Every structure is written in structure tokens, then in C-alpha cells.
Amino acid sequence: MEWLRNVVLFTAAIGFAQWITPGGTYEKYIKFIVSLLTLAVILSPLMKGEDMAVISAVSTEGFFREESWQQETDQIEGIQQLQIREILAERISQEAEILLQNDFPGITGRDIEVYIQQESLKAETSVPCLITVRTEETQRKEEIQQLLQSGLRLPRSCIRVEKKEVADE
After folding, report:
1. Most buried pick, 35, 47, 100, 121, via CB within 10 A?
2. What predicted TM-score, i.e. pTM, was given to this entire model?
3. 133, 112 in Cβ contact below 8 A?
4. How far is C-alpha 65 from the chain's CA centre?
5. Where does the chain show beta strands of DSSP type E?
6. Which residues, including other chains, have CB under 8 Å from residue 126's CB and lie 6 or more apart?
7. What is the reported pLDDT for 14?
8. Domain limits of the chain?
9. What pLDDT does residue 59 have?
10. 157: closest CA among 111, 117, 102?
11. CA angle, 120 as apex, 114 and 125 as ends, to 5°?
12. Is 104:135 a contact under the CB 8 Å cutoff?
């Protein structure tokens, strides 16, 4: 609203100034200057605030600063990779819990820990993740590993079964 008020006041002031000034040889120059000033007032919101960040990102030669652009891109990619690993780990944990709930009802989601290696998202690695299941049923370790290996289609080296430690009461 302030911008609109400024445009109206400026246009009124210029109109009044043109009305009281005599015409003549300089009239077309005055109109040209007034039109440039009016254009500047109308476009002034583009020159304020956040839009200046876009203008300042351009160097004096007119090219984007490659280093800052690359740093921002790398930072965004890093955040995205972290989010993807977290979502993937959560989904694998949920899937493992669903697979184990019928045959091993004592194992819950809190007993399953999934770690996704950072490099596994960019390239094929031999062990893309590590699933650790903590249970009191260590005698059935082979069954748990076999069930998770076939259900999640992961190599056996990705699945580790450990004895659950009972908290002291």
C-alpha cells in the first residue's frame, strides 16, 4: 500500500510541477526525465529487500558467482542425502518389524536399528546398510537372519542379531 501511495503522490506532484512550469524548448526533455523518474518510483519495490539478493548474486561482469552457487548446491544435496537415508532407514525398520512380528513377537521397532551408509546412495557398495536386531532369542539368530535376508532382499552381511541387554531395575 505504501508503494501505491508513493506512486500516486509522485505522479500528482510531477503533474502539478509540469502545470506550473512554462512550456518551451525544454519541455520534451523535462517530460523524458519525468517519465524516467516515474518509472523508477514504480519499479522501486523490485530494488528493495530480498530482490536485491538476486541482483547482488550477479558479479560486475554479469556472471553468477560460481563458488557460492556450487556451495549452496552441495549443501542442499547433502541435506537431501541425509533426509533420504533417514526415510530409507525408517522404512527398512518398519518392514523388518512387520516381517518379524508373527514369528518373533518379542521383537519391536525399538529393538531394530538400521544404519544406511552414506556412500551407498551414490554408488553400489557391497554392504549398503546394516540392520541390527536386539533380541533375547539369540538361539534363533539364524532364523531371524534368514527371514530378514529373504524378506528385505539384503545380503546376510547386512544383518546382525545381538543379545538384548536387560536394563537393571
Report:
1. 100
2. 0.52
3. yes
4. 21
5. 112-116, 129-135, 159-163
6. 155, 157
7. 81
8. 2-56, 88-163
9. 44
10. 117
11. 110
12. yes
